[in-house]
Amino acid sequence: MRPHRPLPPWKELDKLLRRALEQVKGQPNLRDRQLRLARMMRLSFTRAGKVHPTLFVLGGSSDHDSGGFVVCEMARNLQICIAEKSCKVSKVRSRYSEWWLVLDDRIGYGALDERDRNQLRELIQLDSQWSKVILVNPLNPVSGFEL
Questions:
Q1: CB atoms within 10 A of CB 115
Q2: Of 39, 81, 102, 146, which sits with the fewest C-beta atoms within 10 Å of its C-beta?
């Protein structure tokens, strides 16, 4: 799988992926095959050596639009977002005694383990303007963590 940004909204991407998987699933003698989903993603299919219960198994992915290791990239982007949001609310900050900043995790998508989360917490310099900074997995909104 090779995605390129910007990706379409999940509902649109979900339809494209399902259509591609159905197309490949219907081929009894599948050989190596590549499918392009619009212009933003290419999928490569290779027949496995055995049948898997899920039929499809992710063999790997490559994201040439990524900027580096996930934790470092998240820390860099969080510093930018926190600074921007702090600036945006500065005029109305006095209206409330407590402010929370909740952001979609569009880099890690909730996949960080506890070690990575702790590393991210060490890298982020939170100012006292925010009582809490929370990252939420946009694919599973009940899944998130506090910095």
A1: 9
A2: 39
**In 3D, which of 19, 55, 64, 57 has the Cα closest to residue 37?**
19
Strand ranges inside 76-122, DSSP E: 100-104
133, 140 in Cβ contact below 8 A? no
Neighbouring CB atoms inside 10 A of 133's CB total 22
Give the three-state DSSP class for 146: strand
CA atoms of 23 and 37, how far apart (whole Å): 12
Strand order in the sheet with 33-37: 2-3, 41-45, 33-37
Here the tokens at position 38 are 């619009």
End-to-end CA distance of the chain: 31
Rounded average pLDDT over 51-57: 80
55-59, 65-69, 80-84, 121-125: which range is least confident on average?
65-69
- Predicted pLDDT at 47: 78
Collapsing DSSP to helix, strand or coil, 123 comes out as helix
Task: Give the list of residues 6+ apart from residue 3 with CB closer than 8 angstroms, or none.
Answer: 40, 41, 61, 63, 65
